[in-house]
Amino acid sequence: MFCQILIALVKFIIRRDFCINCIFNIFDNKGCKRCQINYLKENFTNWTSGNEKIDNFIRKEQIKINSKSDDIVFEWIPYDQFNDIKEINEDSFFGIYSAIWKYGPLRWDGSNNKYSRKLDKEIILIYLHNLKSINEFLNEVKTFKYEFELYGISQNPSTKDLLFKWCRKCQTNYLKENFTNWSSGNEKIDNFIQKRQSEINDPYETVLEWIPYNQFHNINLFTANWKDGPLYWDRYIRKYNKKSNEVVHLKYLYNFHDIDEILNEVETHSPNFKIYGISQNPDTMVYIIIFRDKDYCIGCKKIYSIAQNKWCEKCLTNDLGKIFDNFIQLEKMGIMNDENSF
Fold this sequence. Notes:
By secondary structure, the protein is an alpha+beta fold. The protein has helices at 2-15, 33-42, 52-63, 134-147, 168-177, 187-198, 259-269, 313-340, and strands at residues 75-76, 82-90, 94-101, 106-109, 114-117, 121-128, 150-155, 162-166, 209-210, 216-217, 223-226, 231-234, 239-242, 246-252, 275-280, 287-292. It folds into three domains: 33-166, Phosphorylase Kinase, domain 1; 184-310, Phosphorylase Kinase, domain 1 (2-Layer Sandwich); 312-342. The protein has a six-stranded mixed beta sheet, covered by helices on one side.
């Protein structure tokens, strides 16, 4: 009799999806929320950042975990867990690097009802420079958490820079899901753009797109307004959004007839300039590279030699040439005036 009752109880628990570990909680395919939080709480004493404010911040993030949606555990990650650190971008405000996380992120294994790690995970490190306080750093982390999925916080023991980890996969997945919603009509161009979107390594990186020509209005010789505008990551709705009616610069590739030549031209300019995408005039069939308008010199309608300083070598050379010519003319006039004075 007792065995029958026990078997019936077990069947009831399995049928009702009760957690085997704690019996009390119904759980879904992400696992039992109570068991997850208990595991994390029991582990609180096994790690520390060395700063009470950071420790408390991470603990609060961990116990807020939602079993229905959150499968990434926010952690303190010792810096010695990162291998093969490579620079992507660096300036006075922040640095962006790629790295391999030796132990990898902590995730709930629903099949075994416990946490496990994905070893040797490729991740992005974002170093924040010149921050004056821990509160200022944590405010930056909160801002990024609205915008991106973060794995945790770490600190470089040599420079004392605090840093956090961005989930590259979450951003590129959105772009991959959208691949079927557009086409340039040319397989090489489609593959080129899709490859560039899949290789995004920086939350601030410009997304290269195929832009239909009917998206442009107020077209002048070199500029136009882009109706929908470029893609950017919206921190509040946590997905890509568009900056409508953006002014852009159009570079018409009149003398380019081979697709490989066109793509090489895009590759040539990509390291130094923000390229929003590629388009084509359906009447002339001429391909167009779409640049951020600020990267172009108004004087000669050419790309700045150094975009960030808005320095145009051609215009500067021409201006110096004019100044030199004027100086020579003034010198000649001075000599003539001296001769006439005798």
